[in-house]
Amino acid sequence: MKLHITRNQAKGLLGNVKFELNSKVELTDEEEKLIKKYNTNQETLFVGKVNILGIELNVRITIDNLVKGHTFKCSNIAEIVRYEAIVRDSCGTFKNYLEVMKDFGGEDVFEY
Question: Which domain holds residue 9?
């Protein structure tokens, strides 16, 4: 899996700067087959709140969001940085899902 992130900025209507983060995951053929096999497109990887212009919005990132691509826009660079961290963490969770799906079955032994 590869995560592609593009950061853009543009001037808003009032001359202020707007920020945009585009994210999309590129999968291998094997990873695509695992998602289809286990029907995990709508699996939620992150649920939480993101503050945009002082308004808290509920955010839900699914496997489908990452695979099809997702755009986040706001006027605060700190929120773009925070959202990028959320996307990257979601990809880590996604990678764990893929590892479990790939090796599903059998037994794992964990020593503590």
Answer: 2-102
